[in-house]
Amino acid sequence: MTDGVTIGQAAAFAGVTGKTARHYHEHGLINEPRRDNSGYRCSGSADLLRLVQVRPPAEIGAIRDADLTASPPRSSTLNGASTTGWTS
């Protein structure tokens, strides 16, 4: 393979496992990369970018839980206008 990286290399780059990357392909979260002459998935830079953008379910849950427990920011004013968008 001379053009692109294997699924294992792509997964390692994105911080997920190859199994997770294949799961993303199967469920349409990312497009399956093209295959080389040997039948291996061959990820290019656009494939790597998308793989990095997709977040594992556990990470999404942690972000969601953090957002639910966060309190609204304190309002501040700049020339008499609120800068947070929160109303009292």
TrEMBL record:
Kindly list the biological process annotations in GO that this record carries: regulation of DNA-templated transcription
Q: Segment Disordered: which positions?
A: 63-88
Q: Which GO terms describe its molecular function?
A: DNA binding
Give residue spans, biased composition: Polar residues.
72-88
Task: Output the InterPro entries linked to this UniProt entry.
Answer: DNA-bd_dom_put_sf, MerR-type_HTH_dom
PROSITE patterns this protein is in? HTH_MERR_2
Positions of the HTH merR-type domain: 6-55
Q: The organism sits in which domain of life?
A: Bacteria
Q: What is this protein called?
A: HTH merR-type domain-containing protein
